[in-house]
Amino acid sequence: MNRLIYTLFIFLLLIIISCSKKQEVIFSIQGSISPAKEKFILLEQESDIERKITKVVDTIYLTKDGKFKAEYNLEPHLYTLQLDNDKSVTLAIDKGQHINIEVTDFDAKKFKTTITGSKDTETLLAYETFREKSLDTLVKSVRRRIKELKKAEIPNQRKIDSLGSLEIANYDIHLAELNQFIAANMGTTLGLYATSIRWKGAENLSFFDSLTTAFEVAHPNLKITAKLREKVTRLQQTSVGGTATNIEMNTADGTIISLYSIHKKYTLIDFWASWCGPCRRESKMLNELYKTYNDKGFEIYGVSLDDKRDKWLKALEKDNRTWTNVSSLQRFKTPAAYDYAVTALPMNYLIDVDYKIVGKNLHEDELINLLEKLMGDENP
Predict the structure, then answer these.
(1) What is the side-by-side strand order in the sheet with 53-61?
(2) For the chain, what percent of residues have pLDDT higher than 70?
C-alpha cells in the first residue's frame, strides 16, 4: 500500500513538473495589424537560413480589429511572422523579451512596422536597412545601368561587359561594408545568425571565427550557435588548400556524374544559374578558356542553381556551355551549394587533380591569369 501511494505521489509530481515547464514563458509577442485583412498570421522558425528551411510553430488568430497576443516557451532563435502570402516581419528573439509589433498601412505595397521590446530584432532591422541601402548604391544601380544599355537598338556590349565586372567587384565591396556594420553594431545579438548567410572570403575567416566564439560564450546551448560554428567550419574547409567535397548530380539527360569522376589537371567548379546576369556574362570567357586549355587538362564542372528545367536548358544552349553541366533544380537548396557555402552567384572553385582547392571566387582576369600560370607551369 505504501509503495502504491509512493508511486502515485511520484506520478503526480512528474505531472506538476511537466505542466510547470510547459507554462514557462520564454518570450511573448503582441501587437496589431491595420487594416486587418487576414484572420490569422503564422509564426515560423528560420531553422536553416541557407537551405531556406522554415518550420511553422504557431498559428496566431487575430481579433476583429487586428490585434494579437501569444506567449511561448520556445528556444531563442530567428523567427518570421508571416502576415500574408508575401508580407512578413523578421524577429530575432532572445529569452525574456516581450515584443510589441504595430503594423500600419498593411494594404500598401510598403507597409509600416514599429517593433519594440527586442534589442536583437532592432539591431537586425538596422542591419537590413543598411544592407538594402548599400546593395542599391553599389550593386543594383549598376544592374539598372546594364538594363538600360540592353534596351538600345545596338547595345554597347563592351560597356555592358565592363559594368558586369564592376557589379561583381562592387558586390565584394558591399559585403565588406556589411562586415564593418556587424563589427560595429551586432555584438552577440541573435540577429548575427541572419547575417551569416553572407559570410564569405578567406580574408574574413578569423573575423567570423571570433564573432562565433563570442556568440558561443553568450549563447552556449542554442541551435543557432551550433549553426554559426558549422558555417565557419564549412568556410574553413572550402578555403584554398582544403579538399573539395565530392558532388554527384544529374545532367540534363538524367546521367549522374560525380566531380570525383573527373581526373583533369585542373577543374573549375562553376556555380551559376540562368537568372544570374553576371554568370551569363562570364559564359564567353569560360568558352574561351575551355577552348584554350581543355586539351591540356582543364575541365569545367557546371553546377546550376536553377529551379526551372526549361530555363536551365535554354541557357546551356544559348551560352554554348558544352562542358559537364549538372543540376538538381533546387536553387540554393542544392546540397552542393550548402557544402560549398554558396549563398550568392557567381561563385567558383578551381581544384587540382587531387581535388585540392587552388583558387576560389575567381572572375575575369583573376581566373584567366591563374589558369595561364598553372597551365603554363604544367606545359613548359
Answers:
(1) 53-61, 40-48, 77-82, 88-93
(2) 93
Q: What is the largest CA-CA distance in the chain?
A: 97
CA–CA–CA angle 344, 135, 160 (5° rounding) = 80
pLDDT of residue 4: 46
Nine cell digits for residue 126 = 538596422
By C-alpha distance, which of 200, 214, 247 is closest to 347? 200
- Residue 187, Cβ neighbours under 10 Å: how many? 16
Question: Residues 236-254: pLDDT tens digits?
Answer: 999 999 999 999 999 999 9
Give the C-alpha separation, 295 to 287, whole Å: 13
Alpha carbons 133 and 221: distance in angstroms, whole number: 34
How far is Cα 298 from Cα 182, in angstroms, rounded to an integer?
39
CATH of domain 248-276+284-378: 3.40.30.10
Please state the domain extents for the chain. 22-117, 123-237, 248-276+284-378
pLDDT at residue 380 is higher than 50: no
169 strand-pairing partners = none
Q: Which three cell numbers stand for residue 264?
A: 583533369
Give the residue from 318, 193, 205, 339 showing the smallest Cα distance to 271.
339
DSSP secondary structure string for all residues of 276-309: -HHHHHTHHHHHHHHHHHGGGTEEEEEEE--S-H
Distance in angstroms (rounded) separating the CA atoms of residues 269 and 338:
14
Judge contact between 268 and 350, C-beta under 8 A: yes
Residue type at position 63: T
Alpha-carbon distance 58 to 49, whole Å? 19
The Cα 174–Cα 161 span in angstroms is: 20
The domain made up of 22-117 is a member of CATH 3.40.309.10:
no
Distance (Å, rounded) from C-alpha 192 to C-alpha 228? Answer: 9
Q: Check residue 109 and give its pLDDT.
A: 80
